[in-house]
Specification:
It is built from no helices and ten strands. By secondary structure, the chain is mainly β. Helices cover about 0% and strands about 45% of the residues.
């Protein structure tokens, strides 16, 4: 069966991604293959981890088998995207995934009035 390809705008107008959906005639369903223009694209393992710089970094089992987009940030972290959704950041110095609701900075570097900055 021929895949359907769709293009959508990414987090800003300079980035976009394509995905294709392949319908299978049996019960096994594979995730859509996502390609992120202007970003690195990586496949998350079925266990929800991403191998980066020799380290397994846990993201989420819900992302298992899916492609995510990675783009470098000025603070040394990598922004993590699923389609247009910014999921969070990977702190390369600690090889940890930080959800979008938290800052990439260490918690003790923030005061109560600080809000996480993207």
């Amino acid at each position: 069966m021929k895949p359907t390809v769709t293009s959508c705008a990414g987090p800003d107008s300079s980035k976009s991604f394509l995905w294709s959906r392949v319908s299978l005639s049996h019960d096994i369903r594979l995730p859509e293959a996502l390609t992120y223009k202007g970003m690195s694209s990586r496949r998350v393992s079925r266990a929800g981890t991403l191998k980066l710089q020799g380290e397994n970094i846990f993201l989420s089992q819900a992302l298992g088998g899916w492609d995510i987009g990675l783009t470098p940030r000025s603070d040394g972290c990598l922004s993590v995207y699923f389609c247009q959704l910014a999921l969070g950041h990977i702190d390369l110095s600690t090889s940890t995934f930080i959800p979008a609701t938290h800052s990439c900075s260490p918690p003790d570097a923030q005061t109560e009035d600080d809000t996480p900055k993207e």
